Amino acid sequence: MKYSIDQLKTVEECDALLEILAKDKEVAESKLTIQRISIERHETTSEESFSELETVEPLQQALQTMVDTMPDSAVKDRYLKDLDRLAVRKRILSERVEQYSKEDLLLKQLEYNRMENDLPLYDTLIQQVQDKKATL
To answer: pLDDT tens-digit profile of 122-136?
Structure first.
């Protein structure tokens, strides 16, 4: 079955369709906002994680060098625990940097652009239905 604005025969049909379109547009706008926030968080998190990873690696190397020269003692044991914590932190940050890749950001941005381009279609369709309603 072919759908078109011309099939609308009553003002009530137009009103019902306008109500549906208004809700659909509102949902689309909400999704667009959510996607924009997701992109912003993605960019921020990836930059923060990469920056922190760059500081953890030299710190871990320096601490390892220091621990290697220390005699066995409680202080050395404490630094060994710190080394273990840094190794865990480095692994977590590496995974996060990998997870927040530039490809993922690009995909999110492409989806955002698609959604943004779809929004004017709602306005166009709403205007067409309003014009049809005015002629009834």
So the answer is: 999 999 999 999 998
DSSP assignments along 99-126, one per residue: HT-HHHHHHHHHHHHHHHHHHHHHHHHH
- CA dist 104 and 100 (Å) reads 7
Take residue 34 and report the two structure tokens written for it: 């959510």
CA 109, chain centre distance (Å):
9
Alpha helices in 1-136 (DSSP H): 11-69, 74-99, 102-135
C-beta separation of 136 from 10 below 8 A: yes
Query: Is-contact 18 119, C-beta < 8 A?
Result: no
Backbone angles phi, psi at 72, to 5 degrees: -60, 130
Write the single-letter amino acid at 34: I
pTM: 0.68
User: Cα separation of 86 and 78, whole Å?
Assistant: 12
Contact 5, 132 (CB under 8 A): yes
